[in-house]
Amino acid sequence: MTKDKALLVAVLCCVFSFSSLLFGQANGSLSGTVADKTGSVITGAAVKINAQETGLTREARTDDSGPYLVPLLPVAHYTIHVESQGFQTTEQRDVRLQVDEQREIDFTLNPASVTQNVEVSATQVAVETTNPTLGR
Questions:
Q1: Cα–Cα distance between 49 and 103 in angstroms, integer?
Q2: Does residue 51 belong to any structural domain of this protein?
Q3: What is the largest CA-CA distance in the chain?
Q4: Residue at 14 is within a domain
Q5: Residues facing 102 on adjacent strands
Q6: Per-residue pLDDT at 51 exceeds 70
Q7: What does the alpha-carbon distance between residue 30 and residue 21 come to, in Å, rounded to a whole number?
Q8: Considering the domain boundaries, does residue 100 fall inside one?
Q9: How deeply is 113 buried, as exposed, middle or buried, from its count of CB atoms within 10 A (0-12, 13-18, 19+)?
Q10: Which terminal residue of the chain, N or C, has fewer Cβ atoms less than 10 Å from its own Cβ?
Q11: What one-character DSSP code corresponds to residue 52?
Q12: Tens digit of each residue's pLDDT (9 = 90 or more) over 6-22
C-alpha cells in the first residue's frame, strides 16, 4: 500500500508542477466602442493596435453595434490608431496592458474637414487703349 501512495504522490506532484505552466496566461485584451460626436456608433471603423516595444501589429474593425475587440495581446505598451472614412483619425499612445487585463478604451471621432478648391480660368480680352471711341 505504501508503494501505491508513493506513486500517487509522485504523479500528483508532477501534475501540479506542470499545471501552472499550462494555465498561466500573460495575455490581455483591448476593447471599446467607436462613436461620433453625437454618440452614434461608427460601423466598419479600422482599429490598428501596435506594440511600441516589439512592433507587433493587430487590426480589427468595429461591427454593426460599434464595438471592437482585440484578444490575446501580450503585456506591453500599445498605440491604438482608429480611422473611418469621413472622419478624422484618432490615436492614443502609451496604453499599458497588464497580465490578464481586459482594458476598455472608447474613441470619439470628429468629422473630417471639407476642403474645396475652386479654379477659375478665362481668356484675356483685348482692350484698345489708343482710341477712346466705342466700337459697334
A1: 13
A2: yes
A3: 133
A4: no
A5: 29
A6: yes
A7: 24
A8: yes
A9: exposed
A10: C
A11: T
A12: 776 666 666 666 554 55
Is residue 62 within 8 Å of residue 35, measured between CB atoms? no
Q: Is residue 66 part of a domain?
A: yes
- 43 vs 26, 33, 85, 115, CA distance in Å? 31, 10, 10, 24
Return the C-alpha cell found at 43.
Answer: 460601423
Which domain range does residue 95 map to? 22-109
Question: How many Cα atoms are found within 13 Å in the side-chain-facing hemisphere of 53?
Answer: 8
- Predicted TM-score (pTM) of the model is 0.66
- How many structural domains is the chain composed of? 1
Strand partners, 95: 78
* Lowest-confidence region among 15-24, 56-65, 84-93, 112-121: 15-24
CATH of the domain at 27: 2.60.40.1120
Q: Are 107 and 126 in contact (CB under 8 A)?
A: no
Instruction: Give residue 112's region: left, alpha or beta (phi > 0; psi -120 to 50).
Output: beta
Q: Measure the CA–CA gap between 27 and 129, rounded to whole angstroms.
A: 83
> What are the grid coordinates assigned to 18, written together?
506542470
The answer to whether 49 and 79 have CB atoms below 8 angstroms apart is yes
- Contacts for 135 with CB less than 8 Å, ≥ 6 apart: 128
